[in-house]
Each structure stands twice: as structure tokens, then as C-alpha cells.
Specification:
This protein is an alpha+beta fold and 867 residues long. 40% of the residues lie in helices and 23% in strands. It is built from 24 helices and 38 strands. Strands 5, 25, 28, 29, 30 and 31 form a 6-stranded mixed sheet that branches. Strands 6, 7, 8, 10, 11 and 12 form a 6-stranded antiparallel sheet that branches. Strand 10 (423-431) and strand 11 (437-442) form a beta hairpin. The termini are far apart.
């Protein structure tokens, strides 16, 4: 009975583990990355086996040698002077050897298990690729510090702990065999070979200590001691020589232990150890502190100057800021109607819809059924009716958690409700007469009223939402979309999923997901397939967990009408020499990988668009075939590559300090920038980077850009704005435009204050907030036009009884004018053509929404949504 109680759970655990292993292997085969799966397994096993074997070899060899060499010491008498007379008696006890073998194997298992955790570092070392950046202290490529030193440090720790345990185990064997004991005068008495054996082990530990000091010397390029990250004056002139000296002293101490084997007593080794400790305290701790206090601190700016230069150069290189082009921007206030007409495409693409209120509006007017959900709204660009336009897009995904409780049956969750359906696309700058977004693609099935946005395959089986596994190509009908009082059904025709037509496969997945219904279902056929890991986060990160990922994947409508997700992935490092780390320890980042996931088939492709990134190239060597060369990215997807907001935000945070290239200015922090603030929905928040379509100063053609304005630290006036380019061959270029230091250019917070202080605008906002509605002040956008800056802020009105944000007014600021009008065109006319300065104090419930570009065209949206 007891055997059954133990045996049955053990069999169950083994079967469950086998099911997980087999289904994982099948899943990696489905996505086409079988080599990734097996490389991880064999690498772990190989590194773990090597670690366990090395420990076993060292430990077991020494304890067995101790057992073989250790005779028992037996006192047989004494001489006239009182000294003991000892007799050496060899011992032969095989049971002890079996115990030693068992202990050695047990320790080796745990050491191997611990060593297996180093498999990634070992593979990175074996496949390392040079960065092409040489550290200024040792003249080594950055790859040495990122790929080599971690493994060297891990090996030193491994062998150090191994030798310590070996010394303890060996000493215990000698004590057990009474080859080392205390005599009646409390003196340690050792057998002839014991001293030599233990001394050799201590000497080996000291050799490892010497290596540790050398590793510490190399790691000085990662020192946080000075005013900046990296080796400082004290590190180079005090710490580095001391560490090298300590390494020499450790070697000498090891030699002394070996030499002392031929001499009586332990005085010489103890002197060596004492010298090493004294050197470490005096030279390693006191001397650097004294130099820092009395040599560096009184002249810090001067003596640290070359090391600040090294830190600036390394940090800018590691964060991709070394190629930033800096250009002056006059910030003049001479903009005219003719200038606006000449920049018609820029003005027509000013974003009046913010993603957050637009998401709420989409949820109210386009979710259609309770089981659909929009997770977020993405900004992208499309050629709409022959014009390059900025658009906002949201995927209508299926959210199984929103099904009614009585509808959450096994059949509904796994066979019927399998996918989302379609997308919603709207213009960024237009609204209907009700203040709702002007939809270019809407409804179910998706209706497109714009050329270039036709959708031929709207089903979304793979997306951002984390739904359960599903079964397709079964006898049951899949719900496709609602149509009136009836529903339309479909059958999956894609190639995604794993075949489950056979009983063994059904059994494996039944064990994995803990459900017998998969085995008992009559709906499965020989063609049935099971789809799991359908959420982008789980699907992509299971394949490549070593990459970091952007917070926001975005959906793209391809030229053939199919839907794919694009997700930005980053390679990072935390040991780049001299580069200033962020709060999370990262001090190197590249957006080398664009992950493309087919929303219907689930195909995952990692496109390496930066062929020079050493980290990506190294991972590519470890997993051949994982990364697809960037030149193979289809042209229709390349047109939709975005410079990611997360990376841009990190770079801008670094640039706020590292735009200062002069070491003296950097040391004094004379020209620090910071991200400005704005009022959003009544709260003061940082201005987040935002996408725009505009022509850069000096460029003839509008392009899709990501922008970030800057203000001086603790000031409100604008000092600079930075743009990331992403169209065509200009992808990844960063351009910083700096305003004249002798001219006031209003920052976002100052413009917000002027809006709040305008008596007419303030009165109208107060009135709206008291009339059963809430006013949402949207993002304040800084829009450079020619040599000037426009400020545009949308206003949304949301009823407390009908929480659908509606675009109600547009505020435009320029120079000393701030106006609020029903449309952007009205506001621009009020500023530049002497029209009315503000709108009437009450909102108009009806009428058309007009977007007018002064000197250009007028677009009027009718209630029916046509133009």
C-alpha cells in the first residue's frame, strides 16, 4: 500500500514532465525554432555535467588521496625528555571509501546543477563578437568585459568554493584517520604527507586569489567610485597598482606554502598570509581613500577631466547617441498663413486625438459585442487615398474573460470563440459632427472607405490578450463575427498550431493542460490542430527570452490586406566599460531586432535590422537561423517600422545630461536638460515622446518622426527638441535642434499656464465642468513649422452619463496668442488671419467638423461620415 502511495504520484510527475517536454518540443517545431529548444537543453546539460565532473575530479581525488596517504598515529611510549614516541599504522576500511564516494557524488550533483546556470554566459563567451569599441585603460574590446569577464569570475568562484570544500573534506579525512591530532601539550601533530597535501590546497586557493585580483583590476572600468562611472583617477593611479601588487603577493604566498612543505612549523606561511592581509588593508583600502581625499577632492574637476571625457564618449556610444546631429533652430515668431500653406501636409497631420481618450471612444462605439476588446491604440502612417497620412489603429481582439459566466463552457472557450476580428482605423486630426473620430476602417466585417486600407483577412488568432488554448479544424464551428440576430461561422485554414489527431498527442496535451475533455471530445478529427501560446508576450519571449521588449507591439495592415504584429526587441548589456548605467543597471542598448508575428498563422520572424550590433550577432551565432537578415524584411513592412518610444525615452533621458560634451561643463552640470511637463486630464505629467508627420528644417519632404521637447533643469522655457527619423534610408537618425540661448521660447508648462490664465478659456472650461460633463485637456503638442513653433492642444468633453470622450475644441498657441476654436482650421485662422480669438462659451451639439489649412483646402465631415 505504501509503495503504491509513493509510486503512483511519482509516475504522474514523470508523465506530466514528459508531456511538458514533448509538447514544448512540438511547439518549437511549429514555430520553426527547434534548434533553439535543443541548444538550451544540451547547453545546460553540457555545462552542468562539466561542472559536476570537475568538482568530482578535484574533490574525490583529494579525499581518496588523503585516505590513501593518511596512516593512523599511535602513541607507543615516550623518551627521557618526555617526547611522544609515535607509530604509523596504515588503515584499510572500504566502508569509509564508499561513504566518501557517496558524499562526493552528492556534492558534485549540486555543483553541476549550480554550474548549469552559467550555460548562457558560456555560450556567449564561446561565440563572442567584437563591439569595435576599445576601452581606454586596458585597450581591450568591450566584448572582453561583457562576454569574457563574467565567465572568468564565475569560474574563479566555482573553483574557489570547490577548493575550500576539498580542503575541509581532506582535513576531515586526516582527522578521522588520526593523521592529524592534538597531542597532550595541545600541539597539532601531522603525519608526514598531511602538511604537504594541505599546503598544496592552500597554495591553489591563493593562486585563484591572484586571479581574482587581476579580474578586479579589469573591472575597474566598471567602477562607480569617481564623479562618473568607470575607472577614475584614484582607480587608475591607486587601486590598479595595488590590485596588481596584491596579485603578486598572492603568488608569492602560494609559493611560500609550497616551499614550507620542506620545513617544520607554520611560521613562514602565517607571515605570508599576514602580509597579504596587511597589504589588502593598507594598500587596498587606506591608500586609495587617502589619495581620493587629499589628491583628488581638492582638484576634482581637473584631475577627473580625462575620465569624464572617457565616460561621455562611452555612454554616448553605448546608448547610440554618438551619431546625434545637432542643429540650431531659430525659434522665430514670424510664421504666416503662406508658411502654413507651404507646410500643408504638416498641419493636416497634427494629431488631435490622443491615444487614451480615443481608446475609450473606440471601446464605446466599435467593440460591438461584450466579448471584444481594444487593448490600446497605435499611431502609424499609411498612404490614404494617395496621401501620406498619420493614422491611429486598434485591433479588435477576443477577450474570453468577458464572456458571460454561463457561456464559459469548455466548448465555447476552446472550440467556438477562438479569435478576434478586424481593426479600427481613424484619422488623427478629424472628427464627425458629434465629436467622434473620423473612421477610415470600422465595423464588423471591416468596412474601409479609404484606398490602401482594405482588409482581406481580419481574423486575429494571435494578439496581445492572453487567452486560453484553442482547437481548430474540428467538427465544431468557430464563431467568426456577429451579423444581425445570427452569427457567421468559419473554419481555420491557416498553418498554425500542432496536430492533435492521434491519441498520444491528445494524451500529452491533456496532461499539459490538466483536462480530460480534450481526450473525451467528439469534435476532434485527424486534421484538428491545437493553438497555444497565442499571446505575443508569451509566444515571442518563449523563443527569445534573452531579448528585452518594447511595451507596445503594434498591428500593421499589409498591402495584401492581412494583419501582422510588429514588436521592437532590444539587446542590452550592463558591463559596457565606462558607460553610465541606468537605475536598472543597463548601460548598453540597441534596437537591433524587429519581431514580426502573423496575426492569423502565428509565424514569428526575428529580423535583425542592425547588422553591426555585437550582442545580436553573438546570439545569432549561438542560435543559427534564429535571426533573419534585415534586408529580407518585406518592403510593405519596412514602410511601417517605427522608432520605438521606449528606446527613444531612454536615449532622451541619457541625452538630457550627455548632450554636454565639454568635461568642465559636464562636471559643473551647467546645462542640464529635463523633460517638460504638461497638464493632462487635470494632472501635471511629463511630456511623452509623440509621433508627427512634418518636414524637418532644411528638408523638402514630410516624414514620420518621433519628437521630444526639452527645457532647462528646473526651468519652463524650451531649450531644444529632438527628432528620430524612420522613413526610408534615414531610419534611426537622431537630430537635436537647439534654440538660441538669448531668446525666450515658451515651453509646454508655460503654454499650459497661459491657457489656464486666459479669462475666456478658463470661464468656458469652468462652465463645461459644471454642466454634468468633464473636460479632458489632451496632450499639448509642440509642432515645429519652418523656423517657428506651434502649440496645439485638443479638448475633449465627456458626459458623466455617457462616458464617450468627444473632440470639442482645439487650442492653438503661437507667440503671445492663445485661442480656442471648434476646429484646428478656425484656431489657425484666429491666430494668423485676425479671426475671432475664442469660441462661444457653450459647445455646439451639432454641425460639421472642419479642418482647414490657411491658404490651403477645407475638409468638412458630414454626419454620415463621408467627405
Amino acid at each position: 500500500m505504501l509503495g503504491a502511495v509513493i509510486f503512483l504520484p511519482a509516475v504522474g510527475l514523470v508523465a506530466y514532465g514528459a508531456a511538458i517536454f514533448w509538447t514544448d518540443a512540438a511547439w518549437f517545431g511549429e514555430v520553426g525554432y527547434t534548434n533553439v529548444f535543443w541548444t538550451r537543453i544540451w547547453a545546460r546539460l553540457a555545462v552542468g555535467a562539466a561542472g559536476g565532473a570537475l568538482f568530482l575530479l578535484i574533490f574525490l581525488t583529494n579525499v581518496l588521496l588523503a585516505r590513501r596517504l593518511s596512516p593512523k598515529i599511535r602513541r607507543v611510549g615516550g623518551d627521557v625528555g618526555g617526547d611522544d614516541i609515535l607509530e604509523l599504522v596504515p588503515t584499510e576500511d572500504r566502508s569509509v571509501q564508499k561513504v566518501l564516494l557517496a558524499v562526493s557524488l552528492s556534492l558534485a550533483f549540486f555543483f553541476g546543477l549550480g554550474a548549469s546556470g552559467l550555460w548562457q554566459q558560456v555560450l556567449l563567451l564561446l561565440n563572442r563578437t567584437p563591439f569595435g569599441y576599445t576601452d581606454p585603460v586596458f585597450g581591450r574590446d568591450a566584448s572582453f568585459f561583457i562576454f569574457v569577464l563574467p565567465v572568468v569570475g564565475g569560474l574563479l568562484s566555482f573553483f574557489g568554493l570547490t577548493l575550500v570544500l576539498t580542503f575541509i573534506g581532506t582535513a576531515l579525512v586526516y582527522v578521522f584517520d588520526r593523521a592529524a591530532l592534538m597531542d597532550e601539550q595541545k600541539r597539532l601533530r601531522l603525519a608526514p604527507h598531511v602538511k604537504g597535501h594541505l599546503s598544496s590546497l592552500v597554495a591553489a586557493v591563493l593562486l585563484l586569489k591572484a586571479g581574482g585580483y587581476l579580474v578586479s583590476a579589469w573591472q575597474l572600468v566598471l567602477s562607480p567610485r569617481g564623479v562618473v562611472f568607470g575607472a577614475s583617477y584614484t582607480d587608475v593611479h591607486a587601486e590598479l597598482p595595488v590590485l596588481r601588487l596584491l596579485a603578486v603577493v598572492s603568488l608569492i604566498s602560494a609559493a611560500i606554502f609550497l616551499v614550507n612543505i620542506h620545513y617544520r612549523g607554520w611560521r613562514l606561511p602565517l607571515v605570508a598570509i599576514g602580509l597579504l592581509v596587511a597589504m589588502w588593508v593598507l594598500a587596498g583600502q587606506v591608500y586609495p581613500a587617502v589619495m581620493q581625499q587629499y589628491r583628488v577632492s581638492p582638484n576634482e574637476a581637473e584631475v577627473e577631466r580625462p575620465y569624464i571625457e572617457k565616460n561621455i564618449a562611452a555612454t554616448r556610444w553605448a546608448f547610440g547617441l554618438n551619431t546625434v546631429r545637432t542643429r540650431p533652430f531659430p525659434g522665430a515668431q514670424e510664421l504666416t498663413q503662406q508658411d502654413l500653406a507651404a507646410n500643408r501636409a504638416t498641419v493636416e497631420n497634427i494629431r488631435l486625438w490622443d491615444p487614451r481618450p480615443l481608446l475609450d471612444t473606440f471601446m464605446q462605439i466599435q467593440e460591438i459585442r461584450l466579448y471584444y476588446a481594444f487593448r490600446d491604440v497605435d499611431v502609424d502612417r499609411y498612404v490614404v487615398d494617395g496621401e501620406y497620412r498619420q493614422a491611429m489603429l486598434a485591433a479588435r481582439e477576443l477577450d474570453q474573460s468577458k464572456l458571460q459566466p454561463q457561456s464559459k463552457t469548455w466548448v465555447n472557450l476552446h472550440l467556438t470563440y477562438t479569435h478576434g476580428y478586424g481593426v479600427v482605423v481613424s484619422r488623427v486630426n478629424e472628427a464627425t459632427e458629434q465629436g467622434l473620430p473620423d473612421l477610415l476602417v470600422q465595423d464588423i466585417p471591416p468596412r474601409s472607405r479609404a484606398q490602401g486600407l482594405a482588409i482581406t483577412r481580419p481574423q486575429i488568432y494571435y494578439g496581445e490578450l492572453d487567452n486560453d488554448f484553442i482547437l481548430v479544424k474540428t467538427k465544431a464551428q468557430e464563431f467568426d463575427y456577429p451579423k444581425g440576430d445570427a452569427n457567421v461561422f468559419t473554419t481555420y485554414t491557416g498553418k498554425g498550431g500542432i496536430g492533435v489527431g492521434s491519441l498520444p498527442r491528445q494524451l500529452a496535451f491533456a496532461l499539459r493542460f490538466g483536462t480530460l475533455k480534450l481526450l473525451l471530445s467528439d469534435s476532434l478529427t485527424a486534421e484538428s490542430r491545437l493553438l497555444f501560446r497565442r499571446a505575443l508576450k508569451e509566444r515571442v519571449q518563449t523563443i527569445a527570452p534573452f531579448l528585452s521588449y518594447d511595451r507596445d507591439p503594434y498591428l500593421v495592415i499589409r498591402d495584401d490586406g492581412s494583419l501582422v504584429w510588429i514588436w521592437d526587441a532590444y539587446t542590452t548589456a550592463s558591463r559596457f566599460p565606462y558607460s553610465q548605467p541606468r537605475s536598472n543597471g543597463i548601460n548598453y542598448i540597441r534596437n537591433s531586432i524587429k519581431v514580426v508575428v502573423d496575426a492569423y498563422n502565428g509565424d514569428v520572424t526575428f529580423y535583425q535590422i542592425d547588422p553591426n550590433d555585437a550582442v545580436a550577432r553573438t546570439w545569432g551565432k549561438i542560435y543559427p537561423g534564429l535571426f533573419t537578415p534585415g534586408e529580407r524584411l518585406p518592403a510593405d513592412l519596412r514602410r511601417h517600422l517605427r522608432y520605438p518610444e521606449d528606446l527613444f525615452g531612454i536615449q532622451m533621458d541619457v541625452l538630457s545630461t550627455y548632450h554636454m560634451l565639454d568635461p568642465q561643463v559636464f562636471y559643473s552640470k551647467e546645462d542640464l536638460w529635463e523633460i517638460p511637463t504638461e497638464l493632462y486630464a487635470g494632472e501635471e505629467v511629463p511630456v511623452m515622446p509623440y509621433y508627427v508627420i512634418m518636414a524637418l528644417p532644411g528638408e523638402a519632404k514630410e516624414e514620420f518622426l518621433l519628437m521630444q521637447p526639452f527645457v532647462p533643469l528646473q526651468k519652463k522655457n524650451m531649450v531644444s527638441w529632438v527628432a528620430a527619423r524612420m522613413d526610408g534610408d534615414h531610419y534611426g537618425e537622431l537630430v537635436a535642434f537647439e534654440f538660441p540661448k538669448d531668446r525666450l521660447v515658451f515651453g509646454p508648462a508655460q503654454v499650459e499656464a497661459r491657457i489656464s490664465n486666459d479669462p475666456v478659456i478658463s470661464e468656458q472650461l469652468t462652465l463645461w465642468n459644471q454642466a454634468g460633463s468633464q473636460v479632458i485637456r489632451g496632450n499639448l503638442l509642440v509642432i515645429p513649422v519652418e523656423d517657428s513653433v506651434l502649440y496645439v492642444e485638443p479638448l475633449y468633453l465627456q458626459s458623466t452619463q455617457n462616458p464617450i470622450p468627444q473632440l470639442t475644441r482645439v487650442i492653438v498657441g503661437y507667440g503671445d496668442k492663445v485661442v480656442m476654436e471648434p476646429t484646428l482650421g478656425d484656431a489657425l485662422r484666429a491666430v494668423f488671419a485676425g479671426g475671432p480669438s475664442t469660441s462661444p462659451p457653450t459647445p455646439s451639439p451639432g454641425g460639421t467638423t472642419t479642418t482647414t489649412v490657411p491658404g490651403g483646402t477645407t475638409t468638412t465631415t458630414t454626419p454620415g461620415g463621408t467627405t
